[in-house]
Amino acid sequence: MILVINTSNENAYIGIYDKVLVAELSWNTGKTLSADLLNKFSELFMKANLEIEKVTGIIISSGPGSFTGLRIGISTANTIAYSLNIPIVGVSGNKNTDELFSEGRTLLKKENKGFVSPLEPFYGTQPSVTISKKVL
Fold it and tell me: Rounded CA gap, 25 and 12, in Å?
């Protein structure tokens, strides 16, 4: 089973594939991605009637995209991959779900080991950080 994740924009997507799509969820994250993502994983695995331990690899959109969305999604995916000792691969570019799975599956076939190192996001530009107006 392959877990596919895309949190690069405000419409997040997670899906489980086993050669074909088994179950998927997509939602508009607004500003609640960090609060909702783990609950959405729970919902997805309940919908598929599977346990997360059945996942053998993770494919995630690695950017470019939202600074916060990529950071939250990739951090969560790295944590899952590390805890299950499974490979994780990133696919860059604006891909639809099927393209993300197809390209990622090819990359995963080359990664026949477990978790090797954390995946890093590709933001596409420097983050725009607002400096606090509050002076200490």
Answer: 8
Q: Using CA atoms, how far apart are residues 106 and 94, in angstroms rounded to an integer?
A: 17
Helix/strand/coil for 56: coil
- 73 domain residue, yes or no: yes
Give the tokens for residue 129.
């950080």
E-state strands within 1-136: 2-6, 11-18, 20-28, 57-63, 88-92
Q: Residue 51: give its domain's CATH number.
A: 3.30.420.40
Q: What is the pLDDT of residues 39-48, one digit of tens each?
A: 999 999 999 9
Q: Which residues make Cβ contacts (< 8 Å) with residue 28, sequence separation at least 6?
A: 10, 11, 12
Domain annotation covers residue 119 = no
Q: Is residue 103 part of a domain?
A: yes
pLDDT score of 83 = 96
- Start-to-end CA distance of the chain, whole Å, equals 51
Distance set, CA 129 to CA 100, 125, 126, 132 (Å): 29, 12, 9, 9
- Tokens of residue 50, six digits: 């599977």
| Residue 133: inside a domain | no
Range of the domain at 49: 2-110
